[in-house]
Amino acid sequence: MRSGAFVRTRMFLRSFAIQGSWNYRTLIGGGFAFALLPALRAIHRDGAEARDAAVQRHVHIFNSHPYLVGVALGAVAELEAERVDPEVIDRFKTAVRGALGSLGDALVWAGWRPACALLGLAFVFAGAPWWLGPVVFLVVYNVGHVALRTWGFRIGFRHGRNVADVLRRANLARVQTDVSRAAVVLLGMVIPLMLGNGGGAELRPAWIAAGVVAVILGLRSGNAARTPIVTGMAVALAAAIGYGWLT
Amino acid sequence: MNALLAALAGGFIGLDATSFPQAMISRPLVAGALAGWIAGIPAEGAMLGAVLEAFHLAILPIGAAKYPESGTATAAAVFAMALSNPTHGAGMLLAAVFALGWERVGGRSVVLARQFNEHIAPTGARLAHASTITLRHSAAMLIDFLRGAIVTVAGTGLGYVWIRVLDSHWVFGPATAHGLLLASAAGCAAAALRVFGGWQARWKLFVAGAIAGLVAVIA
Fold first, then answer.
1. A240 and B170: CB-CB below 8 Å?
2. Is a pLDDT exceeding 60 seen at residue B155?
3. What local confidence, expressed as pLDDT, does residue A1 receive?
4. In the A/B pair of chains, how many CB contacts fall below 8 A?
5. According to the model, what pLDDT value does residue B192 have?
6. What's the gap in Å between the CA of B4 and the closest CA on chain A?
7. Is residue B197's pLDDT more than 90?
8. Cα-based distances in Å from A181 to A2, A16, A246, B127, B201
9. How far apart are CA A130 and CA A71, in angstroms?
10. Which residues of chain A are within 8 Å of residue B175 when distances are taken between CB atoms?
C-alpha cells in the first residue's frame, strides 16, 4: 500500500527532527526510522511484529545531509510499500548515503548558509536597523532550506530506487558553484563595510591597517588563520587588561 | 532579565543547532539578536552576534566533525553583557572573547550528549519498536534542549563575572576595544574565501565585491 498525503506530510514534518537522536554508533539511523514510522505503520497495518521488524531494519547506521534525507526517506517508503526484498533496500540505503551527505555538505554548509549569512552581515555592517540583517538571513536561508527538503521528498517518492539518476541530472554541483560565486562577491563587500563603517563606530586608521593585515592572513591561510588571529586578539586583550591592572 | 526566558532561549538555540529544526536560529547572527532582544539590548546583541558570525563563517559542520557550539555561547555572552552593564568600553570585546572560549565547552557538551544518545536512542533490535521509537527519539531531543539551556545559563553566570571583573581594568577606551574586535573578525571572515574556491579561482569576484563595498562606505 502506497503512502497517502497525510502519511507523507507526517514524514516530511518528522524529517525536520531526523538528527534528534544523533549518536556515534548509528549516526542518524534512529532518526531515519523515526521519520519513516508513519509509512511503516500504514504499510504494516496487519501486525505489530511485521511493523517492529521493519523498524528494526531501519535503525542501523545511516547518514545523510539532513536537508536531503527526504530523497532516501521517500524512496525507501516506496520500496517498502512495494514489499521489495529488505536486502535490496539496505543496498539502496548504503548506495545513496554517501552521495546525499557530500552533496548537501557542499551545497548547504559550504555554499548556501555562508552566502545567506554574508547577506545578513552586509545589512548589519551597512548600518541597517538591528533586526534587519538577522531577519533577512533567516528568511532567505529558510526559503532555500524548505525548498530543498520539499524537492528531495518529491523526487524520492516519485522516482524510488532510480532517484540517483535524478540527482545526477539535477546538477547540484553547478548550483553550488553559482552560490559560491555570489558568496565571494558578498564576502568582498562585507569586509570593507566592517572595517570602513566599523559597525556604527568609525575605526581609527591604525585598526583599519591591522584589519587589512588580518584579512590578508585570512585570505592566504584560510581557516588555519583563525587560531592565530583569535589568539592574537586574546593576548592583546590580556596585555591591555594587565596594563590597566598595574597602573 | 528573566532567567527562565534566557534558559528557554538557550535550550531552543541548542536544539536548533543539530536536533530540530536546523533553521539557523542557532547561528551567532540570529542568536545574538534574539538574546539581545530578550535582555533589552537588541542593537548590542545583534552587533555582537554579527561579529561572532564573522568569526564562524569558515567553520563547517561536515559529517561527524566535532566543532564549537557558537549559538549557545553567543546567547550566553549577550546575556552576560546585559547583566554586567560594562562602562569602560570593553564589554563587547570581553563578551566576544568569552564566547569564543565558551563555545568549546558547548561543543564538548554536544559530544557528551551524542555519546549518551547511544544508550537511549533506538539503535538496535532490543530498543527499536514501533511503539517506543518516538518516545526514545523525543527523549534524546529533550536532553539536547536541557543541555542547551544549562550551557547558556552557566555561560551567562561565568560571562557575567568575566566581564564585570575585567572591564573595570580596561583603560584604552571603547574605540580601541572596537578596533581590535573588528580587525580580528574581518581576518576570520576573509578565511571563508577558501571555502568558496580560494583566492586563485575567485579573486576577480572578491575584488569586484570589495570595490562595491568601498563605494558603499564612501557613499
1. yes
2. yes
3. 55
4. 365
5. 96
6. 23
7. yes
8. 42, 29, 50, 47, 10
9. 38
10. 201, 203-204, 207
